């Protein structure tokens, strides 16, 4: 057996016994490209997923309701400086109708995503109130949990969102290398973006964290991100491969092969066995779904109604008008991967257990922090 194979065997055996790999080992796992080794990683990730989630998969309806943005992220076509773009801001009625369409089709959650729209998060009190009202109505009318992806918002706005009944706060750091972050998200304070996640956790919201690959990161950077996700106990952990866009500074940045995203998904699953990990339709569309599920993902995200005039992010139009991002197209792929759609109650039960887990670890923390220090 080569030293390489031996190391992989030892690491997978340790993971099987519940031992979390150290950062250098995580980085090493992330660098695996030999098809024999990656096949073993994917198989191990599927077996860990099976243990924690059985063969059930969750579905997220994606509703990108405002593409206006005050920021200038270098990787994003919706950046403020991109004037070649036709932007939209959907009305409450349009949003409710698209959300109902996806709820009726059987999604488990509605993800309300927006640019940092100056007329909403940067807006007047009454604009913010109308936005909160819209969010509350989406939850009430669909009877589904709501995720909000609003970018970096103030502590008060996060509290308003929790009061509006939101279940999830999604906010992707992209990288936890502060220097790289500053080049990707210029003018957006690294620590402010991070602190929103702690605040959301304190408010009882579940938190999704995310990383981008192919943006100049090293394997050690990715390992740092995965290590943060593990220590913070994120509830959902995402990776997306950077997709070059016209009209942005990174238009000519070459994205690595799709293997990278699969390996990162598998390593995230091995390090964080019990969290939700998306297979996003936004990067490679329906054609890229099976390989992400085979790497250990257990949520299909970026399900979009075909005729509502809604866009994707990494790929604004891919598969949308063709109805490729619908459950009718997704479910047969699941079956081919020996997976099945979860029931709505199973998703709700997972959310409730996860919220209870955070509440009890908060309780433990506050109990122990009142204890006198052992040597005082
Ligand atoms: N505006 C909010 C924000 O930035 O947090 C919400 C939108 S957020 C869901 C958009 C995410 O899509 C980014 O955080 C990034 O991870 C991903 N994304 C944006 N442009 C991308 C691209 N060209 N390729 C791949 N992923 C991209
Ligand atoms: C997705 N296009 O799930 C969406 C988006 C935002 N919370 C998610 C990046 O892939
Ligand atoms: Fe705006 Fe979000 Fe795109 Fe950045 S990633 S430019 S904050 S929409």
Please describe the topology of this protein.
Layout: H1 3-16, H2 23-30, H3 35-53, E1 56-66, H4 92-105, E2 109-114, H5 125-142, E3 146-149, H6 155-163, E4 168-170, H7 178-184, H8 190-202, E5 206-213, H9 219-232, E6 236-241, H10 259-271, E7 278-280, H11 281-284, H12 289-294, E8 299-303, H13 327-336, E9 340-341, H14 344-370
Parallel strand pairs: 1-2, 1-8, 1-9, 2-3, 3-4, 4-5, 5-6, 7-8
The structure holds S-adenosylmethionine, 5-amino-D-isoleucine and iron/sulfur cluster (SF4).
S-adenosylmethionine (SAM) binds at residues 75-76, 113, 115-116, 149, 151, 171-172, 174, 210, 212, 240, 242-243, 245, 313-314.
Please characterize this protein's 3D structure.
β5 (206-213), α9 (219-232) and β6 form a beta-alpha-beta unit. The longest helix is centred in the C-terminal third of the chain and has 27 residues, at 344-370. This protein has helices at residues 3-16, 23-30, 35-53, 92-105, 125-142, 155-163, 178-184, 190-202, 219-232, 259-271, 281-284, 289-294, 327-336, 344-370, and strands at 56-66, 109-114, 146-149, 168-170, 206-213, 236-241, 278-280, 299-303, 340-341. α1 packs parallel to α3 (35-53). The protein has 14 helices and nine strands. The model has no long low-confidence stretch (mean pLDDT 95). Strands 1, 2, 3, 4, 5, 6, 7, 8 and 9 form a nine-stranded parallel β-sheet that branches. By secondary structure, the chain is of the alpha/beta class. The protein has one domain (3-366): TIM Barrel, CATH 3.20.20. It binds S-adenosylmethionine, 5-amino-D-isoleucine (MD0) and iron/sulfur cluster. 5-amino-D-isoleucine binds at residues 62, 111, 113, 149, 170, 278, 280, 282, 301-302, 312-313.
């Amino acid at each position: 057996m080569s030293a390489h194979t031996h190391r992989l065997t030892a690491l997978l055996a340790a993971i099987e016994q519940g031992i979390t790999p150290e950062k250098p080992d995580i980085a090493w796992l992330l660098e695996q490209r030999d098809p024999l080794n990656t096949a073993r990683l994917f198989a191990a990730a599927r077996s860990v997923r099976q243990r924690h989630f059985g063969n059930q998969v969750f579905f997220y309806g994606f509703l990108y309701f405002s593409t206006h943005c005050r920021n200038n992220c270098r990787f994003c076509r919706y950046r403020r400086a991109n004037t070649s773009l036709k932007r939209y801001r959907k009305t409450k009625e349009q949003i409710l109708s698209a959300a109902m369409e996806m709820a009726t089709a059987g999604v488990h959650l509605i993800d309300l995503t927006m640019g940092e729209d100056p007329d909403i998060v940067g807006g007047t009190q009454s604009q913010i109130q109308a936005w909160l009202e819209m969010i509350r109505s989406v939850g009430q009318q669909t009877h589904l949990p709501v995720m909000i992806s609003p970018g970096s918002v103030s502590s008060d706005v996060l509290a308003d969102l929790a009061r509006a009944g939101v279940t999830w706060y999604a906010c992707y750091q992209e990288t936890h290398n502060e220097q790289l972050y500053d080049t990707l998200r210029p003018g957006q304070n690294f620590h402010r973006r991070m602190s929103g996640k702690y605040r959301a956790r304190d408010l009882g919201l579940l938190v999704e964290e995310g990383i981008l690959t192919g943006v100049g990161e090293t394997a050690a950077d990715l390992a740092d991100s995965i290590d943060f996700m593990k220590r913070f106990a994120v509830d959902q952990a995402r990776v997306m491969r950077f997709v070059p866009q016209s009209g942005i500074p990174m238009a000519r940045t070459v994205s690595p092969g799709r293997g990278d995203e699969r390996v990162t998904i598998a390593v995230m699953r091995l390090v964080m066995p019990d969290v939700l990990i998306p297979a996003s339709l936004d990067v490679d569309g329906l054609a890229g779904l099976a390989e992400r599920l085979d790497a250990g993902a257990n949520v299909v995200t970026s399900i979009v109604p075909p005729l509502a005039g809604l866009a994707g992010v990494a790929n604004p139009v891919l598969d949308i008008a063709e109805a490729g991002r619908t459950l009718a197209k997704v479910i047969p792929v699941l079956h081919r991967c020996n997976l099945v759609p979860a029931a709505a109650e199973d998703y709700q039960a997972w959310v409730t257990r996860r919220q209870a887990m955070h509440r009890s670890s908060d309780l433990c923390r506050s109990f122990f922090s009142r204890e006198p220090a052992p040597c005082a």
